[in-house]
Amino acid sequence: MQLSIVIPLLNEEESIKELYDWIASVMQSNRFLYEIIFVDDGSTDQSWNIIENLSNRNPKVKGIRFFKNYGKSQALHAGFKMAQGDVVITMDADLQDNPEEIPELYHLIKNDGYDLISGWKKKRYDSVLAKNLPSKLFNWAARKTSKVKLHDFNCGLKAYNHNVIKAIEVSGEMHRYIPVLAKNAGFDKIGEKVVQHQARKYGTTKFGMERFVNGFLDLLTIWFVSKFGKQPMHLFGALGALVFLIGFSFSIYLGIDKLFLNPTGRLITSRPQFYIALSCMVIGTQLFLAGFLGELFIRTKKTSENYKIAEILAQKNTEVSD
User: Rounded distance, CA 222 to CA 20, Å?
Assistant: First the structure.
């Protein structure tokens, strides 16, 4: 199979059918062998019924329905597990991503050898203050922190080599940083393509300003995990040893001062250096133990999905046309 198109969604009943027709038209005109995987992230409207009807009409349409809203990262994780195409395309269901971009994205992965192509919405039709300016600040911080040179990390329209989506694990709210996860996994041929952005046609956005706050916190998390996630002792052990050494040095100073330099002076426990020494040795020991426990956890943890699927639509015969 050439293409898997993974579409996470939440309450997009007005746009699903129109998006499907648009994608199917592009696929047929380019003679692609494809599948469309809709991941319903706990919709409370008629989204799942529409997906079921589309799947009954066309076996190339598959669906995953979550019991409740788990988030976009979990939806992508489930879609990636099901995807079988040589190239995997992700896009949003709100009609703001243009399916006409898919053929070129496919060829950039398949013919030019890219591991990942990220869309760049150079011209946006969103609110300047609510989305555009915060997005520019967020993308600048992501570039500086991750060293991945992309203009638009959060664009939902991306293309992946099949090997990439099987090698990375998208969890929490890390969908914004899939290019960084791919780079950390060893896939360094990452590019971007200017894509057409369209104004939302139906409904309202499902993301508020809090996503930018969460995005910056996630950015710090992924920076830490990429550097020390597999060897936390390198950070906590080094900090612990340094802090403990500072405390121990104060203790040595206090001991020498009391025994040899000023034996008739005030009690050690009445000197501020004593409490600095005590605090540093306690904190240093705790940091060292944190690194040690982190190492034990990494070696014993078992991976598991943090979402529950209510229903899956998937038919074996995917070679029939509309």
Answer: 34
Q: How many CB atoms lie within 10 A of CB 266?
A: 9
Tokens read off for 200? 């939302």
Question: For residues 179 and 190, is the Cβ–Cβ distance under 8 A?
Answer: yes
Find the helix or strand (DSSP H, E) in which 34 lies.
strand 34-40
With H, G, I as helix, E, B as strand and everything else as coil, classify residue 191. strand
Give the Å distances, CA to CA, from 4 to 75, 83, 133: 15, 6, 33
Overall size of the chain counted in residues:
322
Q: DSSP E strands: which ranges in the chain?
A: 3-9, 34-40, 61-66, 87-90, 116-120, 158-161, 190-194, 309-313
Handedness of CA 110, 111, 117, 121 (dihedral sign): negative
**Residue 313 in 3-state DSSP?**
strand
d(CA 243, CA 240): 5
Give the separation between CA 139 and CA 179, rounded to whole angstroms: 12
pTM metric for this prediction = 0.74
Which stretches of 152-232 are DSSP H helices?
Answer: 162-167, 178-184, 210-228
The radius of gyration of the chain's CA atoms, rounded to the nearest angstrom, is: 26
Tens digit of each residue's pLDDT, the chain (322 residues): 999 999 999 999 999 999 999 999 999 999 999 999 999 999 999 999 999 999 999 999 999 999 999 989 999 999 999 999 999 999 999 999 999 999 999 999 999 999 999 999 887 665 555 566 777 777 887 788 778 889 888 889 999 999 999 998 887 777 888 998 899 888 989 999 999 877 777 766 655 556 667 767 777 777 777 777 778 888 899 999 999 999 999 999 999 988 888 887 778 888 888 999 999 999 999 999 998 888 888 777 655 566 778 888 887 554 444 4
